[in-house]
């Protein structure tokens, strides 16, 4: 079976009998917060009961954190679950995607027979979305996906252009889905979110997840924000009734209390991202100056296999439309781990 994403630690362990140093998945390098671990353990005794299908306690906690009404929130089995539900609930005939971007948007759209138009981001412009994207949104466009910051480039779109895209989608009647799963890793997250535009724009859906910031990839927990409660109702009906386990719900409520942990993660990434970028550039590699907890870089020498032999997983970006197999994405991890990757790259490139 072909795997689309990074993070295949299980495949590595099956082959080598040990755990890898995983730079192929972009999750917090500080591990699962202790409060979240305790909440999962504490919830274990109650798994004889079905989970709350409406995630009431969790939605209340998210509503408080996001300063939104609980009825504007739908929880899912990770953001990927909600992406697939959006495609299934709306069954758009035509959709628009900037590329390169996260693979699940296109996979979900194609699963419902949607015709997907690619807006190819310019390599010369370091894959920044520009005003030409507005012209690609036509009256035939029924759904648009954006990733802010984008995965795998780590770039953000200027806010005035994002606001213009919201307006343009409203004009043509398209649903605009903005994936903000990596937004918390930006230097100023509050300055780069479309949450303030939800009110008055019922066609706008924002996706967020606990996966990255809280290192909760295995818990599978994400949520959609939208002022159109009818659309959220449709999404709810499209998925399975107990898609969010009681363990994940307890973990989510606990994670929202982990304020000090979040500050530590963000401080670490703010220091290590520029250091990692400089380290890669010092090896003669082209680096896209991303703003999240990962970096896209280009290298003519194949890296995945030689790094794997050294116990390190790296994400090849050859399967992203708009990129080829000279492009790689690396997570930004702790200083010692980042130094380990850079040393291994130095050895390979020598």
Task: Describe the protein in words.
The protein has 350 residues and is of the alpha/beta class. The chain has helices at 9-16, 34-43, 56-66, 78-90, 103-111, 132-136, 159-172, 229-238, 246-255, 259-282, 304-309, 335-349, and strands spanning 21-22, 73-76, 94-99, 115-120, 143-147, 175-179, 204-209, 222-225, 286-288, 294-298, 312-313, 315-316, 327-331. The chain is built from 12 helices and 13 strands. The strands form 3 sheets. The protein has a 7-stranded mixed beta sheet with strand order 2-8-7-6-5-3-4, with helices on both faces. A 4-stranded antiparallel beta sheet has the order 9-10-13-12, covered by helices on one side. Strand 5, helix 7 and strand 6 (175-179) form a beta-alpha-beta unit. The radius of gyration is 20 Å and the shape is globular. The relative contact order is 0.18.
Main attributes?
350 residues, alpha/beta, 7-stranded mixed β-sheet, 4-stranded antiparallel β-sheet, 12 helices
Structural class: alpha/beta
Strand order of the largest sheet: 2-8-7-6-5-3-4
Percent of residues in beta strands: 15-25%
Number of strands: 13
Order of helices and strands: HEHHEHEHEHEHEEEHHHEEHEEEH
The helix content, as a percent range, equals 25-40%
How does the major sheet shape up?
7 strands, mixed
Task: Walk me through the topology.
Blueprint (H helix, E strand, L loop, with lengths): L8 H8 L4 E2 L11 H10 L12 H11 L6 E4 L1 H13 L3 E6 L3 H9 L3 E6 L11 H5 L6 E5 L11 H14 L2 E5 L24 E6 L12 E4 L3 H10 L7 H10 L3 H24 L3 E3 L5 E5 L5 H6 L2 E2 L1 E2 L10 E5 L3 H15 L1
Parallel strand pairs: 1-11, 3-4, 3-5, 5-6, 6-7
Antiparallel strand pairs: 2-8, 7-8, 9-10, 10-13, 12-13
Helix pairs in contact: 2-9, 3-9, 4-5, 4-8, 10-12
């Amino acid at each position: 079976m072909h795997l689309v994403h990074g993070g295949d630690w299980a495949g590595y362990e099956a082959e080598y009998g040990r755990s890898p140093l995983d730079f192929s998945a972009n999750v917090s390098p500080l591990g699962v917060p202790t409060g979240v671990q305790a909440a999962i353990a504490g919830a274990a005794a109650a798994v004889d009961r079905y989970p709350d299908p409406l995630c009431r306690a969790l939605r209340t906690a998210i509503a408080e954190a996001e300063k939104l009404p609980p009825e504007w929130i739908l929880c899912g089995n990770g953001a990927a679950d909600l992406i697939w539900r959006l495609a299934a609930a709306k069954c758009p005939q035509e959709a628009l995607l900037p590329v390169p971007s996260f693979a699940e948007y296109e996979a979900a759209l194609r699963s419902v027979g949607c015709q997907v138009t690619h807006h190819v981001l310019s390599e010369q412009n370091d894959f920044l979305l520009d005003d030409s994207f507005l012209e690609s949104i036509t009256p035939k466009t029924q759904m648009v996906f954006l990733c802010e910051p984008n995965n795998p480039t780590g770039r953000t779109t200027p806010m005035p252009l994002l606001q213009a895209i919201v307006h343009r989608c409203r004009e043509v009647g398209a649903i605009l889905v903005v994936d903000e799963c990596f937004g918390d890793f930006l230097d100023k997250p509050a300055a780069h979110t479309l949450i303030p535009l939800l009110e008055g724009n019922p066609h706008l859906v924002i996706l967020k997840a606990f996966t990255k910031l809280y290192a909760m990839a295995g818990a599978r927990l994400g949520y959609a924000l939208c002022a159109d409660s009818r659309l959220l109702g449709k999404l709810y009906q499209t998925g399975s009734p107990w898609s969010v386990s009681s363990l994940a719900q307890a973990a989510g409520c606990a994670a929202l209390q982990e304020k000090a942990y979040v500050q530590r993660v963000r401080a670490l990434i703010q220091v290590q991202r520029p250091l990692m970028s400089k380290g890669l550039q010092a090896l003669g590699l082209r680096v896209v100056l991303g703003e999240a907890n990962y970096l896209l870089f280009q290298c003519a020498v194949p890296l995945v296999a030689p790094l794997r032999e050294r116990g390190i997983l790296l994400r090849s970006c050859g399967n992203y439309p708009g990129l080829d197999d000279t492009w790689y994405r690396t997570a930004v991890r702790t200083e010692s781990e980042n130094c380990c990757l850079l040393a291994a790259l130095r050895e390979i490139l020598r």
